[in-house]
Every structure is written in structure tokens, then in C-alpha cells.
Amino acid sequence: MQIDILDESKFLCSIDSINEWNLFSINYIQKYIIDKMRLFYSTNILNVEKIHNNSFNKNIVRDNKEFNGEINLYFGFLSDFIIHNFSDVDLSRIHLFLELVIVSESDMKDLNKQYMQKDYATDVLSFPLEIYNTKQSQCIGSIVINMNEVYNKARFYNHNIYAEFSLLFIHAMLHLIGFDHEKDNGEHTELENNIISDFRLPNSLIQRVTLI
After folding, report:
1. Per the count of CB atoms within 10 A, which of 26, 85, 127, 140 is most buried?
2. Quick check: 113 and 143 in contact, CB under 8 A?
């Protein structure tokens, strides 16, 4: 899936972000995820060559072009994986893209108040759109992530910021395809925990709330 990234926080432009990504790539993607990506694209849906030609080859990302390519590929895989396994959408027939918006604390507070009637800055919001059975390119929805919250939680729990970013993204993707942990009988939580465990990521958002 194509990921259209709008980095309103400007964090992805920083050298710290690239350095954190390199650590995440070495410690998570290259160890636990890259083989799953290759297997998934070779057995399930189209465009397998994008995995074989990608830059996840133990080289260090040194510029924004390589960095943006890897970011798009990784989160595109997470999206494809979740949609393919946990929805009725046939990715070989329908071309989807996703809007990923990265915002600051203050911007997230404004959005949360405007759309959710909650006067505080949350960590992630998701805005689903209906998917139609058509070959035309269509947006599945928007995921909005508070980069300040990502950074703070990653430091608090002592893990990489892109591990934290991944937790928020997975949580929001499940919302986009119809799961809701506040209304269901535990299906959202179970799927989220299974995905996170399979990819060797830290505890999920819901698990952390339960542990408090």
C-alpha cells in the first residue's frame, strides 16, 4: 500500500529521526520483520519486486530519500498485512492508499477537541473511509500520530521511537478496518497483541493500560 506521509511536526526531517530509524531497522526489521515481508509479498499480493529491490540490506540510511523509501515500505507492509489478514478486502483487485499525518502536541489537542470533543492531546487518531469494490485508487482513511507523545512514551518505556510509532500505527490500522476495543468483546485487543508479538514489538497500548 502507498503511504502518503504529511509530516507537520517536521520530526522526520531531523537527523535524530534517521538515527533512530537505523537502530530500529537493525534491531527489529532486519532481525524479525524482513523475512515476514518477503514471504508475505511473495505468497499473497502483487508487487513482490518492491521487497527484493528495497534498501533493507543492513546498510545505514544516510539521506532523506532512502529514509522516506524505507518508512513508506515498512508502514505500507504493516497496512497490507493487517488488511489482507483481518478484512475482506482483496488487495490484488483494489488499489488503496493511506494518509499518515504526523503532528505536534498542540495540533493533536486541537484535532482531538474538534473531532472527538476531548480537550487534551491524545497519542493517535484514526479516520476511516469506506472502501468500494472498484479498481480506481482510493484512500482507506487517515491516521494521525502525535510525535511528541511517541517520543515521550518511547523514552519512558525505554524503547525505540519507531517501535512506539509502530504500536500506534497497528492500533489505528485495526480501527480503520472496523475494530474498536471500546465496543467489541476483545477482538481488537487480541489481534493487536498477536501482531505485536509476532513482530517482536514492545507491549501494546491496550496491554500497558491494563498493567497500570
Report:
1. 140
2. no
